Amino acid sequence: METRVYIETWGCQMNLHQSEGIAGVLASAGYTIEENLDRADVVIFNGCMVRQKAEEKVFGRVGAVVEEKRKRPVLLGVGGCLGQIHGEALLKRVASIDFVFGSSGHKALPGLIERARKQRVTELSEPVFDTESTARRKSQVSGMVTITEGCSNFCTYCIVPYARGPMRSRPRDLILKEVERLCGDGYREVLLLGQNVNSYGTDRTDNGDFAGLLTAVSRTGISRVRFTTSHPKDMSETVLRVMVQEPNVCHHLHLACQSGSDSVLRAMNRRYDRDHYIAITKMGRDLMPDLNITTDLIVGFPGETDDDFERTMDLIERVRFGSVFAAKYSPRPMTRGADLPDNVPASVKEARLERVLSRQRTIALEENRHFIGCEIEVLTEGVAKNGELYGRADDHRTVMCQGDTDVGELVTIRVEGTSASSLSGGILVREKHGGMK
């Protein structure tokens, strides 16, 4: 009898790719992947623990499954970082959850689901790196490839080392084989993933470093190469020069700064200072004037003063990010930050977050307006709700494309309009078989 599985994901691109792995494992075991919750026999929530808000969203969605359970038999599983940290406590907290799994060990899911038909069950394991990809990919244009798993930095606020374990590098030959398969299957872009891609190879002697891997990936024949996320303490001039030298490595750098204040950075255990961050971004733009730098920010970290926050606002002015992912600080269990007094009032956090987002919207709009009249290359990725195609420029900016083209094509457009979040323009040239840098 057919069993239909619906998978919903919260969190980072690592989580999104892990959901592709879950789908691949279940599809290989004979399950049918379902796109609609109300038609599924099994619902899996792959949850995030990095922010309190992401955790709350998972519990908010449980209500939808409860409604379905009233109509018909449905199994609900919760996993990922959320399952890894809370474990069996989730079964005690939420009566409608039937099974819990962790941040790795997805190959055991078919058996776990069958056991859950008889009794509520939890299955966790120490975080491991399943080096062989089993992904059932959602995109047919851009393929995610994990190169490192876990993190060993232990930033004060971050739960990732506890949820995903220490940093482990995937064997270089397996990475290259996966990229070559993607290229052979017609993918135009690869996104190399890791909590800190720049630390690739530091845990083993047989892999080389990230700069060497990036060079090798760029020479597989794939049209575009991206990577995320980079840690400022490990970002090197060597990697920046590979981005210059290899024409298919995109000129986008996601470099999480978290704060512009040295005292807050020390409290966060980030192991770099403001001057180092500014120097890295300046070096990148000296080498690549078209480099788009994006970042992550936390406001309201314990002890953050008004002066500390103004230092962050000043950093935003200096660097002029293409986009900013900003969040209010929320203490996470198991981290060292959980023992600190959460002493910045909620109203102050909210006001600081709004200032960051408001100023960043203005900066993004100002920067995007510089593209008016320019011709840029875009890889088309999908169709928006209004029927218009969208894609990404080389520097990761979102572009709405007006004209006749298909998803998965490299096209040249002339930019005619901008907003804070995207560019738009008409298609000048379609190019199906090969890209232009």
3D structure, described in words:
The protein has helices spanning 13-28, 52-71, 80-86, 89-93, 109-116, 160-164, 172-184, 210-218, 237-245, 262-267, 274-287, 306-319, 346-369; strands at residues 4-9, 32-34, 42-47, 75-79, 99-101, 121-123, 142-146, 148-149, 168-169, 189-193, 224-228, 252-254, 292-299, 323-328, 375-383, 389-393, 398-402, 410-418, 422-431. It has 437 residues and is an alpha/beta fold. It folds into three domains: 4-123, Methylthiotransferase, N-terminal domain (Rossmann fold), CATH 3.40.50; 142-369, pyruvate-formate lyase- activating enzyme (Alpha-Beta Horseshoe); 375-431, OB fold (Dihydrolipoamide Acetyltransferase, E2P) (Beta Barrel), CATH 2.40.50.140. It has a six-stranded parallel beta sheet with strand order 2-1-3-4-5-6, with helices on both faces. Strands 15-16-17-19-18 form a five-stranded mixed β-barrel. β5 (99-101), α5 (109-116) and β6 form a beta-alpha-beta unit. α9 (237-245) runs parallel beside α11 and α12 (306-319) runs parallel beside α13. The radius of gyration is 22 Å and the shape is globular. Residues 433-437 have low confidence and may be disordered.
Counted up, domains total 3
Portion of residues in beta strands equals: 15-25%
Instruction: Give the strand line-up of the largest sheet.
Output: 2-1-3-4-5-6
Mean pLDDT: 94
User: What is the CATH fold-level name of the largest domain?
Assistant: pyruvate-formate lyase- activating enzyme
Shape: globular
| Assigned CATH superfamily of the largest domain | tm_1862 like domain
What structural category characterises the helix and strand content?
alpha/beta
CATH architecture label of the largest domain: Alpha-Beta Horseshoe
